[in-house]
């Protein structure tokens, strides 16, 4: 049983309707219904009666949720006494992640901790971000990686005093411009190595490292600048690139780019912090926000 599912069911009992509960919690109505179903499944009992007018707590369900709400209030109060109020969080992130991920995270933080000051320090240089973390300038760093160990994507890790948590998979897409000869039929990695000009930002970027890890260390790529330049070159028919889905979503929807019929391995969205300091309050706060965004 997950606590957020229990909190959602308690909110539904209090607010009366799925739509109002969703609005109060900042969720989609379908997410409210899904969380309640998952809680009921974990408990092995129905908490709500469903009819054409909506969802209404059963007598037993209401009694359970009222008791659970009292218990959660006690736990929340005890947790609040354990720590000083958190007033500031500083997070570093790779530039590509900032636009795609952090707006939703910041919205969660603003709803949950309205007085919290969040400082975001974007940087395209992963090494600078990790060095800043080790110097204590950052509470945590958000980056793209793969594999069980930090740096398995192929970049150097500056110190062993780092730990991480993987938050979600980031799908990767091999994209080409409209009319590219590799479109319209299944493509193997060998076809890509043999028949395509592969484009990337530069040799240290996550997408470049991911492409070489997938296709082999001897794979040749052409550096063309930033992410926007890579998309422009691909759209102009100058080559193929392997990029995260969030970076090409709009171009795929508009038809400016097209996806090849192949499935590159996904990357992981990874939060990194200093293991010697443990999961500090800022780190726990970021982990919560990232899990909710």
UniProtKB/TrEMBL annotation:
InterPro entries: LysR_HTH_N, LysR_subst-bd, WH-like_DNA-bd_sf, WH_DNA-bd_sf. Keywords: DNA-binding, Transcription, Transcription regulation. GO terms for molecular function: DNA-binding transcription factor activity; transcription cis-regulatory region binding. Transmembrane segments: none annotated. Residues 1-58 form the HTH lysR-type domain. It holds the Pfam family LysR_substrate. The keyword rRNA processing does not apply. It comes from the Bacteria. The keyword Ligase does not apply. Belongs to the LysR transcriptional regulatory family. This is DNA-binding transcriptional regulator, LysR family. It comes from Pseudonocardia thermophila.
């Amino acid at each position: 049983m997950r606590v957020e599912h229990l909190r959602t069911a308690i909110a539904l009992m209090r607010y009366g309707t799925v739509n109002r509960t969703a609005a109060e919690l900042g969720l989609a109505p379908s997410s409210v219904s899904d969380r309640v179903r998952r809680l009921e499944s974990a408990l092995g009992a129905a908490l709500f009666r469903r009819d054409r007018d909506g969802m209404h707590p059963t007598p037993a369900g209401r009694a359970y949720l009222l008791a659970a709400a009292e218990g959660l209030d006690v736990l929340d109060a005890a947790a609040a006494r354990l720590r000083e109020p958190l007033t500031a969080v500083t997070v570093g992130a790779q530039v590509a992640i900032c636009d795609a991920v952090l707006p939703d995270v910041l919205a969660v933080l603003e709803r949950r901790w309205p007085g919290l000051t969040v400082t975001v320090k974007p940087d395209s240089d992963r090494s600078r971000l990790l060095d800043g973390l080790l110097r204590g300038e950052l509470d945590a760093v958000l980056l793209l990686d793969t594999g069980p160990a930090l740096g398995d994507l192929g970049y150097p890790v500056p110190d062993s005093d780092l730990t991480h948590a993987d938050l979600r998979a980031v799908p990767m897409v091999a994209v080409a411009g409209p009319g590219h000869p590799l479109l319209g039929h299944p493509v193997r990695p060998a076809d890509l190595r043999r028949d395509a000009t592969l484009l990337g930002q530069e040799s240290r970027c996550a997408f470049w490292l991911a492409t070489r890890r997938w296709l082999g260390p001897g794979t040749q790529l052409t550096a063309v600048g930033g992410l926007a330049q890579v998309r422009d070159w691909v759209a102009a028919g100058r080559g193929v690139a392997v990029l995260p889905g969030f970076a090409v979503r709009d171009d795929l929807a508009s038809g400016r780019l097209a996806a090849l019929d192949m499935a590159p391995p996904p990357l992981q969205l990874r939060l990194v912090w200093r293991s010697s300091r443990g999961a500090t309050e800022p780190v726990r706060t970021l982990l919560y926000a990232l899990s909710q965004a």
